[in-house]
Amino acid sequence: MGRRHVLLVTFPAQGHINPSLQFAKRLIDMGIEVTFATSIYARRRMEETAARDLPKGLSFAAFSDGHDDGFTMSDDIKTYMTEIRSRGAKMLKDTALSAAEQGRPVTCVIYTLLLLWAAEVAREVNIPSVVLWIQPATVLDIYYYYFNGFADEIIASSNDPSWKLQLPGLPIRLSKRDLPSFTLPDGSESSSL
């Protein structure tokens, strides 16, 4: 097998970029080639704020997400997510094909939360993919159990102020305020996804 080459696709927000960069450093230390893909704006911000801290050997594939001067809260999030999906998918496919033509094929696509389309594109070009989980393990546990047997209890009981949820493997009981907002029936904070 030739040299391993990871295409690390990261949502252009600091909470996604920082853990992804740390992960990229570890991969590079293991001798793995890493191409870091994010928006043009995020790449520009990285150069301005952390250029000397970027790992040596890291290459970039920046793409326009339609907001090359940055996303503002007045911008429409649904339109933004549609744009990042279509433009990011094209970049991922083009980057993978170009790397293969150069004799350094991408051997794995790794993507952060909110970029599930990256797995679909990787599958189209026959590259294995995996999500890089950047949230606490407890949140992963909550998501898992929500979709595997606990959704009905959460939906039925979470409006009771005394309600607590005990999930297998967690030493604490969780209240409504401990749960990700999209799991709650009122969905009052669902736009934060």
TrEMBL record:
Q: Which organism is it from?
A: Sesamum angolense
Q: In terms of domain of life, where is this protein from? A: Eukaryota
Annotated family = Belongs to the UDP-glycosyltransferase family.
Indicate what this protein is called per its UniProt record: UDP-glycosyltransferase 75C1
Q: Name one GO molecular function term.
A: quercetin 7-O-glucosyltransferase activity
The record ties this protein, via PANTHER family, to:
GLUCOSYL/GLUCURONOSYL TRANSFERASES, UDP-GLYCOSYLTRANSFERASE 75B1
Q: Read off the Gene3D superfamilies from this record.
A: Glycogen Phosphorylase B
Q: Which UniProt keywords apply?
A: Glycosyltransferase, Transferase
